[in-house]
Each structure stands twice: as C-alpha cells, then as structure tokens.
C-alpha cells in the first residue's frame, strides 16, 4: 500500500512539473554606433572618438494564469554587464522586479523633463544630485510597479521599493547583500500621473542610518516632483527636488570641489526644459539645470552656498533605424566649486537600432 502511494505521489509530482513548464520567447535587440566628443575646460580642449555596442538579451514566458516572467541582460561595448533583472508581471496586480543596475524606482524620476537626446548631466565629470535620485536603491532591492489605473481621465501609477541593505550592491542567486558602512535599510515611494497632455510625478526615498555608524548624523532623504505639458509638437517641463545626504563633518569651503556621496551639506536642484518636434524626424531641445550646494553652516563659519548651473542645447534626427543626434552642454562651477573653470562638452552621435 505504501509502495502504491509512493508511486502515485511520484506520478503526481511529475505531472505538476510538466504542466508548469513555460513556453519561453527569447529576443536579442541592440544599439550600435559612433560618437565624437569634445570637452573644453578653460583653454584646454580634449577630443575623443568612441563607439556604442549595446546588446539586450531577454527571455520571457506566460504561465497558465496569464502572468509573465521575464529575465533580461544588457551588455555594453566594454564587455561588461550594464544591467540585469527578473520581473514577474501579474496582470492587474502589477509587476515585481529585482535586478542589478536597474536603477530602482528612482530611475523613473531621474531628470525626466523633455529632451531631444540626453540628460544635462551626460558627459559631465560631476555626479549630480538629480542623477543620484534613489541611487542606493539601484541594486539589491525589491521593486513593485503597480498597474496604471484610470482616475477621472488621468492614468495613475504607484511604485515602491525596499532594500534590506541599502548598499547599492547587486545580489546574485541565493546571496546576501554587502553591508553598507553608512546605512541599514532603504525604502522608496513614487507616483506618476498622466492625461490631457500633462505628465506629473513625485518621489521620496529614505535611507535608515546604521546604528553603528559615526559618519552620518541621521537618516538620508531624497525627494523630487516634476510636471510636463505637451501641446502638439512642443513640450515644456519643470522638475525640482533636494537631498539630505546625512553625512556629518566640517562644512566644506565654497572654493573646494565636492563629491555628492561624501559632501557634508545638502543639495537642491531645479530643472526647466523645452523640446519641439520640428518635423516627424527632427527634434530640438533646450534645458537648464541648477544645483545648489548648501553647506548647512552657522553664521560663525560664514561659508557661502555654491550654485552649479548647466545649459544644454540638443537635437536628434531619425531615419528609420538610423539616428543622428548631439548636444552642447556648458557647466559653470562644476563640482560645486566656485573657483572651477567652466566645462563645455560637445557630442555628436550616429546610432543604429536593431
């Protein structure tokens, strides 16, 4: 009797395994191209010719209940892994994502005003505050993207993320995250609203101070909100926000370069841009990004805030799978250093998508 029961259970187990198999669809997409870049710092000019060779490989399958599981890998021209992730789309229940280099929920709020080609900070030597929105949540976090629901003619989507160790370190299959020497856990929350030509959103992220750390004086916080309006061929947008890095220490001089991840003050940013479709194939844009370093010093130290400002003019022209694009971005006080020379970067790119 026991043998018959064992045989029956074995057969049932085999049946369940066979019926749970997913017919997978695999795909390979990519971008290749050439770039020419020039950087002028004061009277010094440096030029470079580069190339792009990005390959995105993915596999996905739909289960019997309609849910879809997807895995993706993005490799760059340097033969390194740029990002990889696994997602489970559960129909009207939303999508759960875990990945490496995905950018966390914050990637949906990183400089999202209209542009023809790249973000203002592309090509800048300084890691900007707007580019670091939710940066510590980019790896080793569990992300949830809810479905877009209709509310009075507007589509609303809520998204959230949680990292048990906010070290921004990728966790592979069955591994544990590398501990951060600053933070324990991290959490983030964002919302997107779109409709009637308007796109808007808000995001907040908090990193909890590690109880054993002495380099921070409290939790770190980042927040931003944005709004854009599309009127036919023209789009205008505005974004603002700030961050409290939580790093403790002496106030930094206005005449010294700062690094966003180690600076002791706070950062505020404001971005405004306008983009226009000149034709079906041609678009142009102008954008201005202002980031202010606030030393958070008292009156006795008398350390002034420093404003870093970048202005970018861009274009993009497409012909089927071929695209020609470029920008010219000029930055004053790079690195939030009032003594730094202005930094002007020009880039021209020819790309092909397949």
Description:
The chain has 354 residues and is mainly beta. The protein contains one helix and 17 strands. It has a 16-stranded antiparallel β-barrel with strand order 1-2-3-4-5-6-8-9-10-11-12-13-14-15-16-17. The radius of gyration is 24 Å and the shape is globular. The relative contact order is 0.14. The N terminus is likely disordered.
Helix content: under 10%
Derived from helix and strand composition plus strand pairing, the structural class reads mainly beta
Rg computed from alpha carbons, rounded to a whole number of angstroms: 24 Å
Helices, by number, come to: 1
Regions with little confidence, pLDDT below 50 for 5+ residues: 1-19
Shape: globular
Average of pLDDT: 88
How many β strands by DSSP? 17
Instruction: Tell me the span between the first and last alpha carbons.
Output: 61 Å
Order of strands in the sheet with most strands: 1-2-3-4-5-6-8-9-10-11-12-13-14-15-16-17
Order of helix and strand elements from N to C terminus: HEEEEEEEEEEEEEEEEE
Task: Tell me the β content.
Answer: over 45%
Biggest sheet overview: 16 strands, antiparallel, barrel
